[in-house]
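Feature request, filed as a ticket because there's no other form

It would be nice if the structure record came with a short human-readable summary line next to the tokens. Right now we just get the raw output. Example of a typical job, pasted below so the devs can see what we mean:
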Amino acid sequence: MTFGIQRLGPADLELLLDLQEKVHAAQPDPDTFQRSTPEFLAYCLADGGRCYRAVHSDETVAYRIIYFPRERPFNLAIDTTVPATEYSTVAHFDTIGVLPDWRGHGLARRLNSRALADLADTGTRHILATSAPTNPYGVRALTEAGARAIGVVEKFGGKLRLLFYRPYPQAWPAAPTAGAQPVAARRHVVLLDTAALVDAFRQGWVGVGVRFAASGAADLSMVRSFLPVSLRTYD
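Raw output as currently delivered:
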């Protein structure tokens, strides 16, 4: 099946607003998906970010928003050890949405790959993102894009979110495959058990992938790894 990835511009605001409403309405848990305001989307569609859509036969089926917080107050780097002097080099992997009928085609991976390639001319040095623990596919998409979960934070009015970090343009090596590390160097924590996740992060573990069980439950795959950036409270 063929999909095109296209960058959106200011004229596409209504298209993006309509698409996010469709994605939000399809969520079994409304807290999983955070909708953006028209003002925020307009900022990202102009020079405040990069926005993309996946198209199949002229139908928009998915989208990805990249946000440059710059001097604006909502910068995820504030929660981390990224130096304040480098906040202007931060990009957020903000919202990604795929319409239900088009899931399973690797669209998040394609959108993320395009976005990563396009950031090369933006001066970006740090990529941060959040994902709800109740959204294992969103967590997997971020780890596949080279981001690692470094902590649990409260955002969007007290909602718990996993916080992800990725250096740019370089990335870490791919996560080791099963059996490539001693058992003691890898663990799996239930994504919904945020207390256990917080404890693991405090002990120096970071999230590098998602493991799905036959029952449909999902674990965060974690390894011990030294990162150049950590959650400020864990430093």
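Something like this underneath would help us a lot:
The helical segments are 13-25, 38-45, 107-118, 136-144, 194-202.
The longest strand covers residues 59-67.
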